[in-house]
Specification:
With 196 residues, the chain is mainly α. It has one domain. It is 92% helix and 0% strand. α2 runs antiparallel to α3. The longest helix has 71 residues. It is rod-shaped.
Length: 196
């Protein structure tokens, strides 16, 4: 009987050690979640800035309505930009859903373990191994999400550069068009003076 009590105590210590490990894992996950949520908020702010830039570019393009070819080209560019934006938002939404699904599953797993579902003697090692495999798989998924988010941010910066180049080209074209109109009007006034 004393042997059975000592086995129970040693198993109880093992369970407590496992619970401590789970608590540590839970704290790390919560920290990662906070960091992710902060980055998500930063991304939302940047996204809003990009939307404002797109709106201002659309407004600039609409100011040049007199030139039909330019409008056609500008509207095609705007359509491409809007489609690209929709694709990016869809991808981000999918990653967001995946992240929340993983987080929910981890939270559920931590809660059920913490609430008293104890491991049985024969299953204890298997349960720990399974949890470690799941943890590793989920960490890899989170890392993949981070890489894809970084890629999207780089793509956004590249698009911003392209928008800046297009805006400069638009200014150059508008300035050259205005200067050409000014030259034509001065030539006409000179002809009128010479002819009479």
């Amino acid at each position: 009987m004393g042997m059975l009590i000592s086995k129970c105590r040693s198993r109880g210590k093992e369970v407590k050690a496992l619970e401590k490990e789970i608590q540590v894992m839970k704290r790390e996950r919560e920290k990662e979640t906070r960091v992710h949520e902060e980055k998500w908020e930063e991304w939302e702010v940047e996204k809003e800035k990009h939307m404002e830039r797109i709106r201002s570019l659309e407004k600039e393009v609409m100011e040049f309505r007199e030139d039909k070819g330019w409008i056609r080209m500008g509207s095609e560019f705007i359509v491409e930009q809007l489609e690209e934006k929709a694709r990016r938002e869809e991808a981000v939404e999918k990653w967001k859903q995946l992240y929340h699904a993983i987080k929910t599953e981890l939270d559920h797993l931590i809660l059920t373990t913490h609430q008293g579902e104890r491991f049985y003697l024969g299953e204890q090692g298997e349960m720990v191994e399974r949890l470690e495999r799941e943890l590793k798989a989920k960490e890899e998924m989170i890392e993949g999400l981070r890489r894809s988010l970084t890629g999207m941010q780089m793509e956004g910066m590249k698009k911003d550069r392209e928008i800046d180049i297009l805006r400069q080209s638009l200014r150059i074209l508008s300035n050259s068009k205005r200067s050409n109109l000014g030259r034509k009007s001065t030539r006409r006034s000179l002809r009128c003076r010479i002819i009479p």
